[in-house]
Design a protein that fits this description.
single chain, mainly alpha, 0% strand, flat
Length: 178
Amino acid sequence: TMSLYNYVPRKEDLYELMVDLVADEHELPERPSGDWRADLTGLAHGSRAIMRRHPWMSRLMSAAYGFSPNSMKFLEYSLWCLDPLDLPYGQKVELVAMVNGVVTTYVANEIETAERTRSLPWSAEREQEIRTAHLAKQLATGRYPRLAAAVAAESGPVDMEAVFDRALSRVLDSFARG
């Protein structure tokens, strides 16, 4: 392990190289479409797919690793997508950072849930049954009327893809208003 430090001075430098290598996986079109929302949504879904392929990536996402060549290429393209949006560049950078934050948070939760489920002595379905039974018992006490109303409003399993898309859309909406 220590021989690695003959090539890279610190583990943080290695992390930056790893992030940069993976950032090159973004399949950026030749030019943005002109629809900034669609372009950023596409970039977010692409980032999510990349992070799912590289589960360690969500733990390393940081502004500290954002200035490597491929990361800068991604950031430049993201800002180019935002040309139609009438905001100062500082706010455009904030928007890109917020979108990346949403992606990173969702992927980190997906990975953690999958890892936790794999470590159980029973199936994911059995785990869901146990959790659902516990929740139903707690809601039946009447101590959580708002949570009970929220659960009652759901019809079936939560579609996490739709939840991700709604979260992303809400972030984009907040910047569309200026």
